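BUG: 3D viewer hangs when loading the predicted structure for this chain

Environment: internal workstation, default settings.
Expected: structure renders.
Actual: progress bar stalls at 90%.

Input used:
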Amino acid sequence: MWIADGWKDYEVIDTSSGEKLERWGDYLLVRPDPQVIWNTEKKHFGWKKPNGHYHRSNKGGGEWEFHKLPEEWTINYKELTFNLKPFSFKHTGLFPEQAANWDWFSSLIKKADRPIKVLNLFAYTGGATVSAAKAGASVTHVDAAKGMVAWAKENAASSGLADAPIRYLVDDCVKFVEREIRRGNKYDGIIMDPPSYGRGPKGEIWKIEESVFPFIQLASKLLSDNPLFFLINSYTTGLQPAVLSYMLHTVLDPIHSGTIEAEEIGLPVKGNGLVLPCGASGRWTAK
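Structure tokens produced before the viewer hung:
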């Protein structure tokens, strides 16, 4: 498992009964987590007095309960600063487990000793974008949600990257890749974090089980003649690490020489020393 253990401003304090107790900077949040199917005694005071608690509804969705939580605050990861705010469906605008991947591709970019162009697809609030840009890459950031792209710009500015070579696009990722292929544009690194289900700006439907393999095939056509890496993340239960590995092998082995690894990604839990699984990633690295 790849573990995001480099955080100082974030930690999973405890897990129990379908929920996790987290520290985000100075604030404690309790949020649902489908992986937490065990019941343990909730000894930490934060379980009873969190700054925010997302209560899931039996009818789907849920709502936040707040106690002295600001509308927005920031946390740092190494040289990066991220803007946080609780919004619908339990999220805060950041997936801290992805720091394991940020460190991986940032190291590759720094060691490349050449200009690196990165394409970040389904780029959300830009955690991977600002990480790649801070490492020295020029980044194209694509997401179908206008609000998420605006949030990514805020994160870049907070991280001292307001003037970095980042191109922000509100677009359907599949249609954008198709146009980039026609335009002949190429990238040295590709990052994709596809949702289990989603809709594009014009109502385009995305179902990961049906769409992800053809999309990997399509996106691979954008790799440069001297590519550096390809990363795919999944939070969909059915897409285990072995499935991500198989897809990358099938698509990339015939066209580029490299190594492929796939693992669960996770976060250390302070209360018991275990690791909370948080999805899976597949990585292709050039030889």
